[in-house]
Amino acid sequence: MKHLLSTADLAKDEAIELLDTAAQMAATQSREIKKLPTLRGRTVVNLFFEDSTRTRISFETAAKRLSADVINFSAKGSSVSKGESLKDTALTLHAMGADAVVVRHWASGAPYQLAHAGWLDAAVLNAGDGTHMHPTQALLDAYTIRRHLGGHGGGLRRGGDDGVGADLVGVKVAIVGDVLHSRVARANVWLLRTLGAEVTLVAPPTLLPIGVEAWPCRTSYDLDATLADWQPDAVMMLRVQRERMSGGAGAFFPSPLEYTRYFGLDARRLAVLPAHSIVMHPGPMNRGLEISAEAADSDRAVIVEQVANGVAVRMAALYLLLSGSTTPATEGTAL
Length: 335
Description:
The protein is an alpha/beta fold. The protein contains 11 helices and 9 strands. Catalyzes the condensation of carbamoyl phosphate and aspartate to form carbamoyl aspartate and inorganic phosphate, the committed step in the de novo pyrimidine nucleotide biosynthesis pathway.
């Protein structure tokens, strides 16, 4: 694996290797000294053309805990704001000797272009491109599901501690909300199906993309029926991305109140779920719109844990792309 651009490109053994390596990385984070010397001397550039808090900080933390040098590049206040092209920015990073470029871009396909246009001699990690893909978010979601649902799903019963070595066969995941604008939903559908999970997308017709019937999942317009009849093991709520809605949110649903009434997760719907079910959200949350405070703060919610797991998953991705090894040196190597 030279780049990490899309979950659709990941084979099942590659995905499991990433998750297992993340479990090893997570084990090192409980130590007093968390840093590993694995990527000492390597340079990781965070190239962000869109605003981000969780993803940028998570990648920065991951790289620093592997002892890499980190350069944070924001389009705002850079030459990009003066009209510099993606190519010229890439050539500049190449001249500076970047070993890995973590890129978030408003245009779908930008990370792929960086990886294959010949402008860079570096590993490219997609940190979210337009409405297309967000592979490390899907990986941290799968990692979180695997840790929590070890007693559910045929594949998980074959795994060891924290589900190491296991797939997600038999696990049912409902992804609810603004699928149309969600790179998280797309990335999760392909990864979860690769790992053997069953996925149902729940959204109003206006927030499902054209061609969704070709995706490897079910679709539903009825959240209550999905929760009561299908009994999902995990419910992933998606943020309503009003900033991507041309014509405003009113072009996609009549009112926030009506959206919440039909597609919001609240205490009443939470009570319908099986006892082992978990509640997820990629963040940031619109509390009171797609998820209530009661649901977001409930014992079932693993939303804060997803953020923590993101560091381990991104450590694993950087490690596998840059170290050339499949056996992390995690014992006795702290700085």
